[in-house]
Amino acid sequence: MKRPHLGIAFLFIAALAACGGGGGSTSLPQPTPSVAPSVSGDMMALKASQGWNYHATSQGTSLTLTTYADPNLVNGVQSLIASSVLGLVPTVATSAANMTANLIGAVGFSIDASKDYNAVSELSVGSLATIPGSPLLVPSTLTLGQTWTPYAGVGAQVINVGAVPNSSACGAGAQTGAQVKYTYGNLNYTIAYVPGCGITDFLNNANGAEFKLISTQSYASIGQLARGRDVASATLLDTAASLLGQRRSVMPAAKLVRAFFP
Fold first, then answer.
1. Domains of the chain, each with CATH number or no CATH
2. What confidence score (pLDDT) does residue 32 get?
3. What is the pTM for the complete model shown?
């Protein structure tokens, strides 16, 4: 899923009236528009063997979701792997075997020097494929009102900068972050980011299903997972095979999250 957390700087400039010559007349102070609040840093905080544990309950079903940053980059691609089990437990990352048995998917990211995160590949039940255009999931600076288009038909807008849900799971100290609303057709999701910590909240606005960060931890004992290597090394040949209905992955746990993402 630590670097120091960066707070928000609100900049207000007071325009003081200058005295006029001779007559001693004055003009009233004119307010200068404030600068929009902004936060900068590593929004995903992907580093070797780091894990993020989330709890969610929807329609009577409770889940634990663990995401895990594979420790070794492949061709400069960092894999983020997600696994889930029924019930509210501390983590799914009790072992490499447990993470693999309960896999629900993975995403490969390219990360530039500024810590902008572009999604370049994905692994799901239906496919192992590259992602055309390498869409920008989240940049290293988020400013209130900022918008961008990660992918054709997908919009992103920063709707809040400041306190965000579940930031206390990042550890002691003030946790300032931002919330980004992603929209695709009638679907929209809100993700909360805290620089140096990662995603603290994922809300499905359509049905209110919410994944809440409960803890972060290093899981060095898990090591590199084979499916992490797969998503990091995905090629156009894998994409072509997926389009032909080949190389479908067996992920029994994937069905667990369907109720959360209708």
1. 39-260 (2.40.360)
2. 53
3. 0.82
